[in-house]
Amino acid sequence: MTAPISLGLNLLLGIAGGIAVGSGVIALFIVLDMIPRLAQLTSSYDKVHWYEGAMIGGSLLGTISDFWNWRIAAGPLFELGVGLLDGIFVGLLAAALTEVLNVLPILAKRLNMTQYLFGLLMAMVSGKVAGSLFDWVVYRQ
Questions:
Q1: What pLDDT is stored for residue 129 in this prediction?
Q2: Which class for 57: exposed (0-12), middle (13-18), buried (19 or more C-beta within 10 A)?
Q3: Residues 44-59, mean pLDDT to the nearest whole number
Q4: What 8-state DSSP symbol labels residue 1?
Q5: pLDDT of residue 99
Q6: Long-range contacts: 86-92, Cβ < 8 Å, 24+?
Q7: How many helices (H) and strands (E) does the chain have?
Q8: Is the pLDDT of residue 96 over 80?
Q9: Distance (Å, rounded) from C-alpha 141 to C-alpha 138?
Q10: CB atoms within 10 A of CB 34
Q11: Mean pLDDT of 111-132
């Protein structure tokens, strides 16, 4: 294949794949009702468009920075802040998924542990934190 045809085919496949993955992520956020639920919890229904714009803008900026291998010369405090924001996002996503599926109440009811639901939740959170710390501190060394 000639170089221009190969480049055009790669561009077409890249854009098509990006649209497919992006559509899947947006569909997941719509099914989980993340943005309306966040607006409900914070009593800020008038700012829903800001939440949506921030999510789309963050996705776009993250994709562009990944494509062009952007590097930011910042210290550990900046990395700590970015890690904290990433953790908040993943926590919101996990909480939304759990809330939609009603996993914890069903699990607690089936195991006859409804009075221990808070402890069960804290055990899951502690296990996730311990596993992440183990991965970052011990396993990746």
A1: 85
A2: exposed
A3: 84
A4: -
A5: 67
A6: 92/34, 92/38
A7: 6, 0
A8: no
A9: 6
A10: 21
A11: 82
The one-character DSSP state at 135 is I
The mean pLDDT value for 84-111 works out to 76
Give the pair of three-digit tokens for residue 140.
């990746």
Identity of residue 106:
I
- pLDDT tens digits, one per residue of 129-139: 888 888 888 87
Structure tokens at 51: 């939440």
DSSP tag of 97: H
Please state, as a whole number, how many other Cβ atoms lie within 10 Å of the Cβ of residue 47: 14
For 48, 119, 121, 124, 126, the CA distances from 115, given in Å and listed in that order, are 36, 9, 12, 16, 19
Which residue type sits at 42? T
* Gyration radius of the chain over CA positions: 20
Q: How far apart are CA 6 and CA 139, in angstroms?
A: 40
pLDDT for 22 equals: 76
What single string gives the DSSP state of each residue in 38-61? HHHHHT-GGGHHHHHHHHHHHHHH
Single out the residue of 50, 32, 46, 22 nearest to residue 90, CA to CA: 32
**pTM (two decimals):** 0.50
Six token digits for residue 90: 């993943």
